Amino acid sequence: MNPTPPTPQIAQSIECTECAASISLQRQPLCGEIVRCRECQAELEVTCVSPLRIELAPEVEEDWGE
Ligand SMILES: [Zn+2]
Q1: How far is the CA of 2 from the centre of ligand 1 (A)?
Q2: Which domains does the chain possess?
Q3: 8-64, pLDDT tens digit by residue?
Q4: Do 49 and 29 form a contact (C-beta atoms < 8 A)?
């Protein structure tokens, strides 16, 4: 008997790693997807979807150089 209800796979929210703001997701995120925090504009990469984890995405330069 497990009293914990199943976690819905949609409408999740995650905490911004930069400012701790709650980021609402309209749908199930994909691993590697980039989400932007609307509070601090940080770009966060989804590194794991179960459980949902995010990390600050590396800044991507327009000029990749070599
Ligand atoms: Zn933030």
Answers
A1: 35
A2: 31-59 (2.20.28.160)
A3: 555 688 999 999 999 998 888 999 999 999 999 999 999 999 889 999 998 777 777
A4: yes
